Amino acid sequence: MWDKDITDADDLIGEIQLLLNDQSFRMLDKVYKRKKRVVMKKYDSKLKKNLDRFWLCFTHPEEKDANDNYIPQGYAEVSIEIMPKGFADEVEAGIGRDAPNANPLLPDPTGRFSFVSSFLIYIHRTYFHPGR
Predict the structure, then answer these.
(1) Mean per-residue pLDDT for 76-98?
(2) Which pLDDT score is estimated for 18?
(3) Whether 66 contacts 21, CB under 8 Å
(4) CB burial string 22-34: b at 16+ within 10 A, e below
(5) Which of 23, 30, 66, 87 lies at a CB distance of 3.0 to 4.6 Å from 83, suitable for a disulfide?
(6) Distance CA 31, CA 25 (A)
(7) Burial classification of residue 81, based on how many CB atoms lie within 10 Å of its CB (0-12 exposed, 13-18 middle, 19 or more buried)
(8) What angle do CA 35, 40, 42 make, to 5 degrees?
(9) What residues contact residue 51 under an 8 Å CB cut-off, 6+ apart?
């Protein structure tokens, strides 16, 4: 996960390693056996059900606490679908939200803090509420 700097180089926020064929998911085996698309599901013990969208925790390789545990740096909600190459070649899909934005359709994010709004807040605090 990288931040998106406007005036400077992008910085690494965190990373995650997700094993698609470990004992928990067995994604690659399922796709190979079924010969069709498979959606990764993760069991939520609080909700007591499988979810096809779930949160992943990103950590930075150099950010650890006093006990040498990685410190969470960010989270991303994901859904993961794996399909055989032949099926993937038949459906159109761009990278991310690039055209054609289909299979699946990825809506624009909501609730993001924009550069313009952060600049306006900075100006407001600096000139209308100095010393805060």
Answers:
(1) 85
(2) 83
(3) no
(4) eeebebeebbeee
(5) 87
(6) 11
(7) middle
(8) 150
(9) 41, 42, 43, 44
* Residue 2 bridge partners (DSSP): 12
What gap in Å lies between CA 108 and CA 125, rounded to an integer?
29
> Which residue matches tokens 């709004």?
117
Tokens found for residue 126: 């600096």
AA letter at 98? D
What's the chain's length in residues? 132
Cis geometry, peptide bond prior to residue 100 (ω within 30 degrees of 0): yes
Whether the predicted pLDDT of 103 surpasses 70: yes
Residue corresponding to tokens 């990685």 = 70
Scanning the structure block, which residue is given the tokens 């690659």?
28
